[in-house]
Amino acid sequence: QVQLQESGPGLVKPSQMLSLTCTVSGGSITTTFYTWSWIRQPPGKGLEWLGAIAYEGSTYYRPSLKSRTSIARDTTKNQFSLQLSSVTPEDTAVYYCASGPRPAEYDYWGPGPQVTVSS
Question: Please, what is the Cα angle at 70 between 115 and 5, to 5 degrees?
């Protein structure tokens, strides 16, 4: 049904902006109660929730990353995006977009590209 696909550069230089876009098909990002999240997994580590945008447009961020994280959406394209500024090699991770009908529920995931921040 719902499919998510991340897109964006796989390599980002330190201090620059990491930008990813999630394209959603099979469902609308304005569907009531659904949230659209960004989650990452550094090599050898666990999943880390970065933030989300809700169906009505409200945004939520991981407090430790809030100052350099921005999530937005384009409802005409059925896409939402992630921008992470001032990246360091510690931001290297597989970045997933994911969605579900309730908080902390992720029924749908993108394949998750690796994004490498060069040192």
Answer: 45
